[in-house]
Amino acid sequence: MHYHGDRQHPVHNLWRIRRYVRPYLGQMVWLVLAAFAATGASIAVPLVVAQVVDGPIAHRDPVGLWQLGALAAVFGLIEAGLIFIRRWTQAASALGMETTIRNELYAHLQRLQISFHDQWQTGQLLSRITADLSVIRRFLSFGLVFLIVNTATYITVVALLIHLRWPLGLLVATSGIPLFLLSRHFSRHYIAASRRMQDELGDVATLVEESAQGLRTIKSFGRRPHMAKRFGREARRLHDTAIGKGRLLALSSARFDLVPNLTLAIVLVAGSVAVAHDAMTLGELVAFVSLQLMLIWPIESLGWIIANAQEAMTAADRIHDVLDTPPSIVDRPAAVALRESEGHLRFEGVSFTYPGTSAPVLRRIDLDVRPGETLAIVGATGSGKTSLVSLAPRLYDVSGGRITLDGRDIRDIQLTSLRRLVGMAFEEPTLFSMSVRENLTLGRHEATDEEIAEALAVAQAEFVYDLPWRLDTRIGEQGLSLSGGQRQRLALARAVVSRPRVLVLDDPLSALDVHTEALVEDALARVLRGTTALLVVHRPSTVALADRVALLADGEIVAIGTHSELLSDVPAYRAALSASASLEADASGTELEVDDVVSR
């Protein structure tokens, strides 16, 4: 996804980066002063050389030659020392700024609502928090400093050239006009190419990330050639854009280089004529040419500086695409922090529509889940079960109506408190590339080994003690080194460890075999006695955990009651369980009746 939003001019977004510069303003001032001093020392050398040519060399004065040579050497050493100081300071300040921006961007991504992440490609976010920040760092550490220093150098040297020989000095100054016109033309085309390339880099990053996560699927279907061709197509597109961008830079650099060289040729011819007619000394001509040669680097670097600035503008633009997106799920001004809760959860006239869509997923939902009660949500695929339970911890906000916890609207409870009180385990578990212990205590860092062991027993996940380093064993990315059932059991144990007052389980047993599922259900039944629970049911056998069952159809609650009541009075409920029982029977290779499944 290439989000452009209400696009500000790129210069505006780059200017907004200045707030990250302020803490390092003192260092930036010192490095600019050091750069100016180093430039001053380098400018002084040609002036000393002019004195050497017109003085000791012309008058054959060895002592004066040694003295002026030593003075030139001193200026050279001073320049070298100042350059070291400048580069050291540049690196430290630029890396500090980059780290600050990266931390803020990452924190903002964590605050943004799930609907934002639903709409954005992971690779696009990844490229912004890595490649784009590196571009900005390069500009702040080198491009910006060289822009200031080179501009000051150009003005100073041109002023000295006019002082030495004003006709030739004006010629050099006039050569800046075509350079200005070239830079405008270059900037206009390069910024579009930069934005296109950085967006395409995000697309490639997304493709790599998806391919890495779906490697098993790709191999199992024998689609490696197809995915390689798809990647090659995206990589070729990125390559062509980069080549076009490089061609722009190369062409402009050649033009920037041509202008000063033509000017230098004219100066050499005109200066030689002036020396021949005694209108200028040889030393002055040497100094003039030496000073003019000092302009070669500022002019040649002009293309690189402009390119770096354009890329930084584009990077700042892309970063502010994210930073300018306000979180929609936030604490209300009067939100309170709750430390304890009875666990009384109510849905009052709740409706929900996913952001960016118009069709409501849920309509007129009224549920009253009493403290300590387990309510199962049953329904066909696509009926809105997962959407319904995702509203309880405010992963999404209701579009209409309200949800209350102990009579208080959950939007009036601070998010950190609410998500400590409402724990959730998903059907598709997410495990992080860290130790088993760190994964289990993600929601409650202070959990003891005894509490972890108890949660592992509930989830039948004691297999972790057979891992090489037990709880300290590092799990690979997404936990792919574990089976689907093992990942689900660890995710369930993580939810139990957090000790929530309201536990939301989105069919967390779907990947378990029948025997393990029965053991987990027995243990869960004991855990759920004192906990309010919302339980999404896809497998009929899990209904036995619930005190009451709500049947969801087309986004509405069409029936609610005990399992036996619904089974005898609501044909739609029996049909929904029969369909699920058939799927479960197909998966296990046995024939099961609905009554058999739910009474196990």
TrEMBL record:
Pfam families: ABC_membrane, ABC_tran
UniProt-listed PROSITE patterns: ABC_TM1F, ABC_TRANSPORTER_1, ABC_TRANSPORTER_2
InterPro entries in the record: AAA+_ATPase, ABC1_TM_dom, ABC1_TM_sf, ABC_transporter-like_ATP-bd, ABC_transporter-like_CS, P-loop_NTPase, Type_1_exporter
Keyword ATP-binding recorded: yes
Span of domain ABC transporter: 345-579
Compartments it resides in: Cell membrane
Keywords: ATP-binding, Membrane, Nucleotide-binding, Transmembrane, Transmembrane helix
Entry annotated with the keyword Transmembrane helix: yes
Membrane topology designation: Multi-pass membrane protein
GO MF annotations, alphabetized: ATP binding
Superkingdom of source: Bacteria
Domain ABC transmembrane type-1, first and last residues per copy: 29-311
Transmembrane region(s): 28-53, 65-85, 139-162, 168-187, 258-279, 285-307
Protein name as catalogued: ABC transporter ATP-binding protein
Origin organism lineage: Bacteria, Bacillati, Actinomycetota, Actinomycetes, Micromonosporales
